[in-house]
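Lines hold sequence, tokenised fold; shown next:
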Amino acid sequence: DASEVGACLDLDAVPVLEGTLAAIERGIESSLIDDNLQAERRVNLPNTELHSHPKFRILFDPQTCGGLLIAVPPERWDDWTQACESAHLATPACIGRVEAAGRADKPLRIS
């Protein structure tokens, strides 16, 4: 809120751990997911079909939503991926971008 920016998240680009989608499909979720889903009111879903996207609930599950998230300027992305490779780290995934805040009450947009 203080930064007056929002973010656009590409749901298809979000990596998931092996077996996660299968567990979600079988109804295996944390008992805290319903509490975390309260944050959904701050998410702008321009396409209502995204709500039924298999990865949507993963964003709110406390067991799977705690990955490392950093912002890298687009012009430095190649440097960042090369640095990760040189350090033998996992290949980073670009899952979205920072943008001007649309609706102040919904700073995160999912596409």
User: Anything to note?
Assistant: The radius of gyration is 15 Å.
